[in-house]
Amino acid sequence: MKALMGVVGVVMVGVVVGLENGLARTPPMGWLAWERFRCNTDCDNDPDNCISESLFKAMADLMVSEGYRDLGYDIVCLDDCWLDTERDADDKLQPDPKRFPSGIKALADYMHERGLRFGIYEDFGTHTCAGYPGIEGHLETDANTFAEWGVDYVKLDGCYTDPKDMDIGYPEFGAFLNNTGRPMVYSCSWPDYQLASGMVPNWTAIIETCNLWRNFDDIDDSWDSVSSIINYYGDNQDDIVPNAGPGHWNDPDMLIIGNFGLSYEQSKAQMAMWAIMASPLLMSVDLRTMHSEFKAILQNQALIDVNQDELGIQGTRVQKSNSIEIWIRPITPVQQDNYSYAMAVLSQRTDGTPISVAVNPASLGLNFPSGYEVVDLYSNTEYGTVLPDHQVNFSVNPTGVVITKWTIVTT
Ligand code: GLA
Question: Phi/psi at 178 (nearest 5 deg)?
């Protein structure tokens, strides 16, 4: 029940149709506070890094001045710990007054004045995961408050509630968001909590309700964490991948590129895999201290183009052997059902030397008779025209990736 379908959707209850709010036709891109800044509320001792309006303004300024916004990273999103510990006298949500003295509407205005969109975090349960007031019992009021404040994107978490209630609650809150008339991207944690409690999610309902949703664990600042997410998506791709498409995306969690835990190779691998998986690109990083080589990864136009490909088909793992994996994603241009592809050759090996990987296009289903123009999206190395029965060798570094684009050769 995505925004703007409003009354029509209520009338059509029981009819299975793909409801669209017109939002998130390609995976959302932006900046999200949680992984990097967590629940740091200590503005007395750590004023530059605590969760406060000045942190979000500082990030917004850099999103613009450092060119992220113009590449499509246009959402700046709060996460947990922005709230006061109590609702106000009218039972409305309110931010912590010391850390957000200008209020949330002013912060949303700040984003809008800079051509950015503003995202907010809440939780379907009684409390957010960090213990601040949740929306339970206040769904309509809170949806209206978000609209009044000028919110463009809502991340709704699922702590402090029974996952069984989510099948009703997430669509209900979505309907209240719709009824405001303000388009808001709706990011859900619904399947994540249900899967963790052993339930089988109702994917049809989730696709119809949410623009994106988490399936798996929170990302942390390590390759182990990134690798576990990639493995989860590969191992469960038959259940997960078909659910993705324009307007509704799987969310494997934030990009952690530019932080402390990933090497240069691992950072390239995360960006490549998030492009292949049609994942939201939500950076969680201190843009003030970004090193140029990590910025270049996040700003790689060719990878962003793969991520944002208009077909919106999520890629899959098509080969896995000795910790070397091949993932492919169908992309444009297309000719008579023949796709072009993005291909990631990923090494999860840690024995410290590059490995040569032979790729045979036909064996992966790349059978276009006149072949493919192949180019490396990081090094720009051109491999010329590769016919289906040709073999290409890629040298892949430990915990690294080679990502190439295979464009059909039309005559
Ligand atoms: C959950 C979510 C995270 C983050 C925290 C905040 O763990 O999955 O992304 O929002 O809550 O407390």
Answer: -60, -45
